[in-house]
Amino acid sequence: MEFVPGRPPLPPPEAIIAAGHEWAVFLAPADPQLRQHTPNEPYYYERKNGITTWIRPFDYVEPTDPNNPDAALEVGRKWQQAESERKRHAARIFAKQDTAVSQQHIDDTPWRRVETKQNRVFYYNNDTKESRWDQPVQVTEALQAMAEKEKEQQAEGTEMNVDDAEWMLEQMQDEDMSDNEPVGTHDANALPQVDERIALLDKPERIVHFKSMLHEAKVDPFGTWDSELDKVANDWRLTAITDDAERGDLFDAVCAEIIERRNRERKHEPLVEKSSDPFGELLQESVVKKTSFAKFCQRNLKDPRYLSIKTSREREKRFVKHLESVVGVNK
Description:
Blueprint: H1 13-17, E1 23-27, E2 42-46, E3 51-53, H2 71-96, E4 100-105, E5 111-116, E6 121-125, E7 131-132, H3 137-158, H4 162-179, H5 196-199, H6 203-216, H7 225-228, H8 244-267, H9 278-286, H10 293-299, H11 304-307, H12 312-330
Antiparallel strand pairs: 1-2, 2-3, 4-5, 5-6, 6-7
Helix pairs in contact: 6-8, 9-12
């Protein structure tokens, strides 16, 4: 039950489930949410329905004991004690049902770390037969020593010896030499030399040659320059333009021209006239002298022309009439 401002809080959880009187009195804690009430102000708790109230219930019978001025509070305390004892008893029963599932011997100690089925961990001493829940000091020191030893081993494994150092220096020298080599000596992507047929042309003529190359290669207008480069990699006109950015711009321009040309051609394509009798056209294509109506239906069940006639009866009439004309012609 959640706390509701203006209402007293629930008593401690031990008292909620405990058996006892119908009503018990408790003292309010020092909670800032209880704005209108002071700490230690009494409130009442009804155990069956979990009701709390600041107002004294009409059926509340206050215990009286001349020798104990806190007799009223003793009721709730007894509930708490009984419930705490019940929980301890249940915990003991639950613990007895627990079993070990894994054990780990701690090196250089007589201790073992044991994990149980209920995910609890305890330590067992093989020499003294002692069991304890907290980690013994001897185990803590042994684990720390193992961790330090592992770090030292890792550091030794990564330490560079003389042979490793000499090999590393040789590799670095090779890399420095390769960096000083002339550009293009080992670059697979280096630009080829400008073809002699291109060298004497001015810039507009070079652009014309480059764009003609792209048109002839039938590049994909919806592709990219990098994806279509293989189609013209061996063409001598590729060297007409040497700047990669300019090549990409010209490629985009050619793609736009190809798309525009396709759109113009599509607009001037003659319209294909739809048949006024698609079912009759299907009959002409599919029916011969020995064709049965069942086979005709089975073969053309998904053909749109077959579905242009809505009813099976009308299809059969058309089929029979067409078959009669086919038979008559073949006589």
